[in-house]
Amino acid sequence: TFTFVNSCGSSVQRTTNITVNSICNPPVISNLSTDKNPVPFFTTANITFTVQNASSWTVTSSLNNSITPSSGTASSGSIVYRRDASLGPDSVTVTATGPCGTTSASIVIN
Questions:
Q1: Average pLDDT, the chain
Q2: pTM of the complete model
Q3: Cα separations (Å) of 1 from 13, 21, 64, 96?
Q4: 71 to each of 59, 68, 82, 95, 100, how far by Cα in Å?
Q5: Are 10 and 85 within 8 A, CB to CB?
Q6: What is the dihedral sign for C-alpha 109, 50, 57, 95?
Q7: To bridge 105 with a disulfide, which of 26, 29, 41, 49 should be the other Cys (CB 3.0-4.6 Å)?
Q8: Each residue of 33-72: pLDDT tens digit?
């Protein structure tokens, strides 16, 4: 209960509820690895990772090579990377999104 008093001495009381939220932890991406590097043209590699404090994740290739699946909601991911668009160093980025933010981590596939 709060009591408010104006400069003339009049007062009024009001009651309100205050909610304190718990600490919000941002997403964490760990154990990002590949089973093969380099990856020759028209071959595949398995990429695995773990996410915490996230409701979803996406994976992208900087050279637009194929990634299956490219998104998910599980706490661990296992995707197949297929070098079918471009050669050269390819930055594969995992982005995890949760109620407390977004986090990204990358691995370079040669």
A1: 92
A2: 0.79
A3: 7, 20, 59, 42
A4: 6, 8, 15, 9, 19
A5: no
A6: negative
A7: 29
A8: 999 999 999 999 999 999 999 999 999 999 999 999 999 9
Contact assessment for residue 62 and residue 90, using Cβ atoms and an 8 Å cutoff: yes
CA distance linking residue 97 with residue 76, whole number of Å: 13
Distance of CA 24 to the CA centre of its chain: 14
Question: What does the buried/exposed string (b/e) look like for 96-105 if buried means 16 or more CB atoms within 10 Å of the residue's CB?
Answer: bbbeeeebeb
Q: How confident is the model at residue 20 (pLDDT cuts 50, 70, 90)?
A: low
Closest CA to 47 of 103, 104, 94: 94
* CA-wise closest residue to 60 among 75, 77, 43, 74: 77
